[in-house]
Amino acid sequence: MSIINSQIKPFATQAFHNGKFIEVSDQTLLGKWSVVFFYPADFTFVCPTELGDLADLYPQFRELGVEIYSVSTDTHFTHKAWHDTSDTIKKIQYPMLADPTHLIARNFGVLIEEAGLADRGTFVIDPQGKIQIVEINAGGVGRDAAELLRKVKAAQYVAAHPGEVCPAKWQEGDATLAPSLDLVGKI
């Protein structure tokens, strides 16, 4: 069953953000575009490359009014320890959510039950709390923050321009399509 356009499920958890522990819930995500970025575990190999890549582009996401939330099944204390000891993770300015009960990973369908870890799942959520984009990668395959940024821009464009869609490789400023009978078989 597709979770596209489904409402995010309730959750509340602790997060490490800008040197403090804060609470984040499903309600925190409402009213703005959000990216929920699951990764397997702190102190690993591919994960810091992805989180560092997101940290590098975080200002561009913020310019679009998007908040990033990274999530692993580690605790908020572990996130702090990783942040304090890794040069790559020290760059992170977005909230790092703790999911030691596995509720959030289970809610989004990315929990690897037998391992107690999350798959590499990316979810773009609109201001109404509905999932607009889902990407799930195998554990050994890292994601690209620039491509995620492109997809967020496309989702925001489509949301703001009913009746238009963004074709493959669409970049901000490129032509869009207005689906109609006249286009059938002409693309």
Provide a descriptive summary of the structure in words.
GO terms for molecular function: NADH-dependent peroxiredoxin activity. It is an enzyme of class 1 (oxidoreductase). The chain has 187 residues and is α+β, with helices and mostly antiparallel strands. Helix content is 30%, strand content 24%. It has six helices and nine strands, in the order ββαβαβααβαββββα. The chain has a seven-stranded mixed β-sheet with strand order 2-1-5-4-3-8-9. The chain has a two-stranded antiparallel sheet with strand order 6-7. The longest helix has 18 residues. It is globular.
SSE series: EEHEHEHHEHEEEEH
Beta strand count:
9
Low-confidence stretches: none
The best one-word shape is globular
- For the terminal residues, how far apart are their CA atoms? 29 Å
Structural class: alpha+beta
Query: Hey, roughly how much beta strand do the residues contain?
Result: 15-25%
The number of helical segments is 6
Overall average residue pLDDT: 96
Rg, please?
17 Å
Instruction: Report the sheet with the most strands, covering strand number, pairing sense and barrel closure.
Output: 7 strands, mixed
Spatially, the strands of the biggest sheet line up as 2-1-5-4-3-8-9
Helicity level: 25-40%
Topology:
Elements (H helix, E strand, L loop, with lengths): L11 E6 L2 E6 H4 L3 E6 L7 H18 L2 E7 L3 H10 L1 H4 L5 E3 L4 H5 L3 E2 L4 E2 L1 E6 L5 E7 L7 H16 L27
Parallel strand pairs: 3-4, 4-5
Antiparallel strand pairs: 1-2, 1-5, 3-8, 6-7, 8-9
